[in-house]
Amino acid sequence: MNFSFHKESASTSKNIAISVLICAKNEAENLKQFLPSILEQEYQNFEVVLINDDSTDETLKVMEAFKEKHSSIKIVNVKTIEKFWGNKKYALTLGIKAATHNFLLFTDADCKPVSRHWISEMSSHFSNTKSIVIGYGAYKKIKGSFLNKLIRFETLLSATQYFSYAILGQPYMAVGRNLAYRKETFFVANGFMNHMEIKSGDDDLFINQVSNKLNTSISISKNSFTLSEPKTSFKAWIKQKQRHISTAKHYKFKHKIALGLFYTSQLLFWVLAILLLSTLFNWKIVLALITLRFSIQFISLGLISKKLNEKGLIILFPFLELFLITFQFYIFIKNLISKPQHWK
After folding, report:
1. pLDDT recorded at residue 246
2. Residue 71 belongs to a domain with what CATH number?
3. Which segments cross the bilayer (predicted)?
């Protein structure tokens, strides 16, 4: 895991003009709670583009109330047309077109930056060559919830992969709750047109399409993290993961192979470990190999969890990994039977 030993270089604030984009569909309460953390950022030159994606609740009224108090807010009110019904990419495209500045920073309505230096930290990674910045989007901790630990562990593993690949010069995805790129990068790639018919993927499919070792940077400073509200029921989380897993099949072939091999190796390890130990076949050797594998992973993930502020998960690592592999297999089968729904 190359990311385990990666050290981020000191960032230098550039104070470039930034447009922060938030696409919201029926997010009135979340906007009331989390939008102030965006507006209170310690950054001189930024606007906030609020995109109301055909909401049926009070989302637009909440946006307008904030705009009355903050001149830095711009509202894009999207009325979905039949061709793009339920498609977040259509709403985001209109928001990107309306953004004043060339440097765009994205997050979600149910997210908040962990510090007032989020914009400064993320924007500091832009340069003449770096037009994409991938950040970390954590989930809030809920004490006593196994589901919450599972969600955060899955988020930690995913981040380990996409940060490691980016460091190795093979960036393949990012999360839309903490992502930045140039406006011109979006339009040169014709936006989301290559995958507009796919309901999800405004973040990972776009980055999979346009990112490379020359134009992509990562930000792992704790001040650059965002914190999101996690799902609180297995049913809601499984629906969310259905969309994510169905999107991954549209990645570039080399990325699908690499990710597929990683999951297969995890699955085979557990199947063989359980089978061989249950039959006591060369159990001393098998147990030694299992111990070696866990020791290496504890060290690697321990270093990474410290970087991403998720240290409390590592002690439960073997159990969380087993549960996660099981649920991923279940979701994969479920996707074969029924298609995931649109984003809201």
Report:
1. 80
2. 3.90.550.10
3. 257-277, 283-304, 313-333
